[in-house]
Specification:
- The chain is an alpha+beta fold.
- 46% of the residues lie in helices and 15% in strands.
- It contains 10 helices and 8 strands.
- The strands form 2 sheets. Strands 1-8-3-6 form a 4-stranded antiparallel β-sheet. Strands 2-7-4-5 form a 4-stranded antiparallel β-sheet, with no helix packed on it.
- The two termini are 36 Å apart.
Length: 294
C-alpha cells in the first residue's frame, strides 16, 4: 500500500463522492461506483461493511493487506485503522456505515463485540457461515435499494433490516479475542481521535504541530512519530486531505469563487491548492466546477 495519496498515488484518477444520510436513519447506506479510487488510512467508531459487486478492491486493515473480489464482504470493526484502493474502473460495491451510538442501543456492551467475516474468494467457509454471508449481502442490497428509491415509510423497513443484520453478525460472525478497545489500545485510539477531531474542527485555520501536540499533552516530535506510525500519513498529508475534501465539496455544491474556496479551506496559497488538487484528482478545480454546472 502506498503511504501518500497525494504523491505516490498520483497515477490514480481519484474520485470524490458526497454521501448523504437519509433523514431519521442512524446509518449511511449507499451504492458506490467510484471505480478507480483510493481512501487513505483512517478510523471511526462506525461499524463499516463493504460488499463488492464488481472489480477488485485492495484492503488494508491494521497494516494487513489483502484483496477482495466480487461476492466478498469485508467488515471494519469500530476503531480499526483501514484503507482501500481500487485500480479498476469497473469497481462497484454496496456500503453500510452503522454508528456506534446505534450499536449501543442494540447491544448491552458493544465495545466487547468484534466481528469477523470469511471471504468466499479466499477462505473455506462452513455451510452456516456461507449461508450467513449470502443473507448478509441480501440485507445490504435491500437496504441500499430502499435508501436509493425511498418509498413510503422506507425508514422503518431499513431499520428492520439493520436489526436483522446486527443479529446475524452477533450469532454467526463473532470473533474471538480481546475487546474492541481495552486498556492501552483504548488510550491509543483516544489520543488519535482527539488529534484527528481537532483537525476536522479547525482545518480552516493555520494549524501548527505545537498546537496539535498540546491537545494530547505530548511533544511535537512524539506526535509526529505517533501519527505516522498509526495512520501511515504525516500530519501535513492528513490535514491536506481533509482540506481537499472540503474544497471539492464546496466546488460542486456552492458558487463561491475558486480562490475563495482555497482560502476558506485553509490553503496557504492558491498555487499550492491547485497543485495539490491536480495531484489528488488528476484534473483542475476549474474543470470540476464547470462539470458540476452542466
Amino acid at each position: 500500500m502506498k503511504e501518500n495519496p497525494f504523491s505516490d498515488l498520483t497515477a490514480l484518477a481519484l474520485r470524490h463522492e458526497i454521501v448523504s444520510t437519509a433523514r431519521f436513519l442512524p446509518l449511511r447506506c449507499f451504492f458506490s461506483d467510484d471505480g478507480i479510487s483510493y481512501v487513505p488510512p483512517h478510523f471511526h467508531e462506525d461499524l463499516e461493511l463493504i460488499h463488492l459487486l464488481s472489480g477488485e478492491l485492495s484492503v488494508t486493515v491494521n497494516q494487513k493487506k489483502f484483496t477482495i473480489y466480487p461476492g466478498d464482504t469485508v467488515l471494519f470493526n469500530t476503531n480499526t485503522i483501514h484503507s482501500t484502493l481500487s485500480e479498476r474502473a469497473d469497481t462497484t460495491a454496496h456500503v453500510l456505515l452503522l454508528p456506534y451510538e446505534h450499536l449501543r442501543r442494540c447491544l448491552p456492551n458493544p465495545e466487547s463485540f468484534l466481528f469477523e467475516l470469511p471471504l468466499l474468494s479466499r477462505d473455506e467457509a462452513d455451510p452456516i457461515k456461507k449461508e450467513g454471508l449470502q443473507k448478509l449481502s441480501s440485507l445490504l442490497a435491500a437496504a441500499c435499494k430502499l435508501c436509493q428509491e425511498q418509498p413510503d415509510f422506507y425508514q422503518a423497513q431499513i431499520l428492520s433490516l439493520i436489526y436483522e443484520l446486527i443479529y446475524l453478525l452477533c450469532t454467526t460472525f463473532p470473533a474471538s479475542g480481546k475487546n474492541a478497545a481495552p486498556g492501552k489500545e483504548y488510550r491509543h485510539y483516544d489520543r488519535l481521535r482527539t488529534v484527528t477531531a481537532y483537525i476536522h474542527e479547525h482545518y480552516m485555520e493555520p494549524l501548527t504541530l505545537d498546537e496539535l501536540a498540546a491537545q494530547i499533552s505530548v511533544t511535537p516530535a512524539y506526535l509526529s512519530r505517533f501519527f505516522k506510525n498509526s495512520l501511515h500519513l504525516t500530519i501535513t498529508e492528513y490535514l491536506t486531505s481533509v482540506r481537499m475534501e472540503h474544497a471539492y465539496t464546496d466546488l460542486i455544491t456552492t458558487d463561491y469563487p475558486i480562490h475563495e474556496i482555497s482560502e476558506k479551506n485553509g490553503f496557504a496559497s492558491y498555487a499550492f491548492f491547485v497543485r495539490k488538487f491536480k495531484e489528488a484528482y488528476r484534473t483542475t478545480p476549474l474543470k470540476v466546477r464547470k462539470a458540476s454546472e452542466l
